[in-house]
Sequence to fold (290 residues):
Amino acid sequence: MNAIAPLLVPGLSTLAPDYSGVLSDVWGVLHNGLKAFDAAHEALSRYRAETGGCVILITNAPRPAEQIHEQLANYGVPRDAYDDIVTSGDVTRAMIAAKPGGKVLHIGADRDVPIYDGLGVVLSSEEDAGLISCTGLFDDEVETPDDYRDQLTRLVARGLPMVCANPDIVVERGEKLIWCAGALARLYEDLGGTVHLLGKPHKPIYDAALARMAEIQGAAYSRDRVLAIGDGLPTDIRGADSQGIDVLFVTGGIHAADFGASDAPDEALIRRRLAEEGLSARAALPRLVW
Fold:
C-alpha cells in the first residue's frame, strides 16, 4: 500500500518546480489588513526569480487593481513579488459597464466609490435605483450584517438584483475579524433576493486572472501548471478546487483557530476539515514562506 504523502510542507520551494504560474490571495496571505507578512512576499519574489514563473494576485477586494497596487506598496510589499493583480472589483466593473446609464445603489464604504469611475452609471438613492452594488459595510469596524436587515428587506420587496463585489464573509484585520460584502449578500439571499457573486470562488475572476497570466507570458496556461495560494476555505480553496487548479492552503489565516497552534497546525485536523467541506489541497503550511 502506498503511503499518503504529507500534506504539510516546509514552504513554496517544495512545490515551485511543478508550476509555471501562481494565483495568490492577498488579504490573509500577503498581509493582515494592517501590515505585510515579509516572508510571504519574499516567497513570491523568489518564486518569480528562481523559476521564471508568473504571479497574479487574485483578490476579492471590491476596488480597481490600481488601488490595491498602492495599498500593497504602503504595506511594504515590493513590486517584484508579483506580475499583476486581478480584483473582484475589476470583474464587477466589467459587469456594471455592460449596462451604461443605469441607476445603481451603492452599499459600502466611501473608499470603494472609485469602482464606478468611468462606467457611465448614476449612483442613486434606494428609491430610484434599479441595481444594488454591494462592496461591503459602510463602517465595518462597528456594524454587523443585521444592521442592514431592514434596508435589505425593503430592497428584496422591490425585486432589485444585487451585484456583490466581494464574496468574502469575513477577513482578518490585525487580530480582529471584519464583516465583508459576502455577509450582506448571504443575508440578501436568505431574505429572498437575487445575488450575482463575481469574485472567488466563482469562475469569472479565475478566467480573468488566467487570461492576464497568458497575456503577460505570451502563451495560454494549462491549469495543471498553475498553483493557487489562499487561506479561505469557502473562497480561495473552493474556488481553485472547482476550477481544477491545485491549492496551497495557508492555514494560519481566518481558519487558524480550527487547526490547533497557529504556527504548528495539526495535519489530521486539516485533512478532516477539507474532507468535511468536500475540498482538496495539494499542500498546506501555516504561513506562506519560501
The longest helix spans residues 203-217. The chain has eight helices and 15 strands. The helical segments are 38-51, 65-75, 88-97, 149-158, 181-190, 203-217, 233-242, 267-277.
